[in-house]
Design brief:
122 residues, 5 strands
Length: 122
């Protein structure tokens, strides 16, 4: 599990197994890093994650924490191969629209997510 900044995109690559607390600590570290621009698009790539026990409440906790940084988030792309997480993020995306949060969109392909981020930040 790691993060990196490319231009105005902050990418979280989630690999293997990890606890929610570890991911939240990584998010905090990324947003506090001097290398992270003041405002960024966030790309969460779960395609290599082996964590299958994250439930709706855990996802809600992660999103609430991420959106505590919402003044710095331009948009959020979430990439997963899991039907469950894809559908869950579609629900979150509709709630984000309703609550004036940054745009959120689920994807199954990282390259499609990157195209969407470029469109959102153009």
């Amino acid at each position: 599990m790691r993060y990196f900044v490319t231009g105005k995109t902050l990418t979280f690559q989630l690999e293997g197994t990890y606890a929610i607390g570890e991911f939240l600590a990584l998010v905090e570290s990324a947003f506090r890093s001097p290398e992270t621009p003041e405002t960024v698009a966030v790309l969460i790539d779960r395609t290599r994650s082996q964590v299958t026990t994250i439930g709706r409440q855990d996802v809600q906790k992660v999103l609430e924490y991420l959106f505590s940084w919402q003044e710095r988030i331009l948009c959020l792309a979430y990439v997963t191969h899991s039907d469950f997480y894809y559908d869950l993020m579609r629900q979150v995306a509709s709630m984000a629209d309703f609550n004036a949060a940054p745009p959120v969109e689920p994807f199954r392909d990282v390259e499609e997510a990157k195209v969407w981020i470029r469109q959102q930040t153009a």
